[in-house]
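Bug report (template v2)

What were you trying to do?
Predict the complex of my protein with guanosine-5'-diphosphate.

What happened?
Run completed; filing so the output is reviewed.

Input:
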Amino acid sequence: MAVDVILGLQWGDEGKGKIVDCLAEEYDIITRFQGGPNAGHTLKFGGNKFVLHTVPSGIFREGQINLIGNGVVIDPITLHKEILKLESANIDYQDRLLVSQKTHLILPTHRWLDAAAEAAKGKAKIGSTLKGIGPTYMDKTGRNGLRVGDLAHDNFKQKYESLKAKHLTLLKLYPEIDFDLKEQEEQWFTYLSRLRNMKKVSGEYYINEALSQGKKVLAEGAQGSMLDVDFGTYPFVTSSNTIASGVCNGLGVAPSKIGEVIGITKAYCTRVGSGPFPTELEDETGEYLRMEGGEFGATTGRPRRCGWIDIPQLKYTIMLNGVTQLVMTKIDVLNKLERIKAATTYTYDNQKTNVLPYDLNTVDITPEYTSFPGWKKSLDGIEQFEQLPAEARQYIKAMEEHLNVPIKMVSTGPERVKLIRR
Ligand code: GDP
Ligand code: IMO
Ligand code: MG
């Protein structure tokens, strides 16, 4: 069997958690392969709402194994809080939530460094979620990191102290900021017990053996392709490979084992944090999308920047990921609009093009829009594509034609049941 992938094609928050939760029953194993608690994946069902940061979004389906892959970075404090919520909802997770031994740990000083580095950047800040993601991946590639498997070793505390000492030296490079290290360390070491008690596996053997036994695996992306450290709007990106290739490194599976690549796009576009956003609307339509779409960060609560869907941008990320099918989410957010726009080409350097420039930060892009009529009605109760208002179908079909990939699912609300499959 192959590993199917669900990932975001924009700047994150496309509704990955919802879609993974919807599809999880069709898989045996759901797994995160990159990112960490910078992610906030919202699931709604049966009148409940859950926001997951580290735990894969298949955890609410009873028979499914959920694996935190080696490419993820874990903060024991966030993980503890997430597990507490699972416990208070009586979710039987103990035997179903596994973690790869090779997963890296976020230390309190990683978060401190993240905050200090951002503060030092001033106006040029990335807009990081301040969860310690960048510094942790830096230690991973710098070969200084601490991994879950290290917990079993006698010298764990010694390794921790030596990495912390390095961080404290580094912190002297930055202007001072408030950080209660003692309190954070106390929590960190207390909640480390969660990880100590969790089932640890050699993730790469685990997944490959499962695949050879015919098990179905779903890899759940975090962030979005435009936040990929190599191909996103650098330096306004996260520190991991968020695109499909990240699945291979983040789980230990060969490229030949990748099956369907399911790319998610909102029916419009959002971004949270700094960085370029060609189709951003800083007007009342942008404000409408933010309010109607509830566009406030699931992790930080920050208002998300909103704009129209961007075809050149999506073509780029479809190419990078080898997307085989699309999901369009939040189409219901457009319900009240008179007209809906989509950027179909860019103009920059006096040229019309579909190609993204080397650096979106330094190029003045004028998007050219195509306008579509709105449908001006609620989509409540609609279960089939053909029941959608003609204008909604027209918009979806136009996007499909531009993008040249079938839109196989359309999400019409945050709840698990609000998904139209074609
Ligand atoms: P993720 O990070 O990609 O999992 O997405 P987030 O959870 O950060 O943000 C998506 C938000 O949109 C959440 O509040 C979801 O509950 C909500 N959502 C998901 N799909 C839909 C949809 O089709 N319609 C509406 N109105 N909300 C949706
Ligand atoms: P999900 O999985 C949206 C953004 C931050 C910032 C940049 C770097 O919920 O889609 P980092 O904390 O990684 O150093 O932040 O990336 N960012 C996200 N934006 N959704 C996310 O995750 C994000 N994770 C990080 O806002 O601009
Ligand atoms: Mg999110």
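What did the reviewer find?
The longest strand covers residues 339-348. The radius of gyration is 21 Å.
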